[in-house]
Write a structure and sequence with these properties.
Blueprint (H helix, E strand, L loop, with lengths): L1 H17 L20 E2 L7 H17 L5 H4 L3 E6 L5 E3 L7 H8 L7 E3 L2 E3 L1 E6 L10 H5 L5 E5 L6
Length: 158
């Protein structure tokens, strides 16, 4: 009896091994979910936090020299282009604002932003916080989320 049970067990085991295993794999018909454009804003080589510190330090220094007045610059937002080669340029060339011009000429080139593997131009918005004029500590102003913002440029439509 033991011999018959052993043979039956071996038969069923061999039978199970011979049956092909079928796995259900869901078919993906829409590949646009997989291959999507990804926008990457790259920071300056010494991190964005250090850039913000330089921006605030420069503003404070300019304010101490009397070139930055609260009536003209409180909560003013400068728009700067980060172009494909990493240069920082005024968005409106020829605006003649010495505050922004003097800051930008001291900056090193950034790595360009990337969209789908290609370098792109994008917009950098630099805010002059009103708190700076109220003698608030720079460490507190650094926590402002809108101090430096990065945005994609909208495509030009004809």
């Amino acid at each position: 009896m033991l011999l018959i049970a052993t043979r039956l067990y071996c038969f069923f085991f061999a039978f199970l091994l011979s049956v092909p295993v079928v796995a259900q794999v869901s078919k993906i018909s829409d590949t646009s979910v997989i291959f999507r454009a990804v926008d990457i804003f790259l920071e300056p080589s010494d991190r964005m936090q250090n850039f913000k510190v330089r921006w605030l330090g420069y503003l404070k220094e300019t304010m101490d020299e009397g070139q930055l007045s609260k009536t003209l610059y409180a909560n003013h937002v400068f728009e700067v282009l980060v172009v494909k080669d990493g240069s920082l340029l005024e968005r409106e060339s020829g605006s003649g604002d010495r505050v922004l011009f003097n800051f930008l000429r001291k900056q090193k080139k950034w790595k360009p932003g990337i969209r789908s593997g290609r370098p792109i131009n994008y917009l950098l918005k630099l805010k002059v916080p009103e708190e700076l004029f109220d003698q608030v500590m720079i460490e507190e102003i650094l926590a402002c989320e809108d101090l430096v913002k990065q945005e994609l440029l909208k495509p030009i439509t004809k």
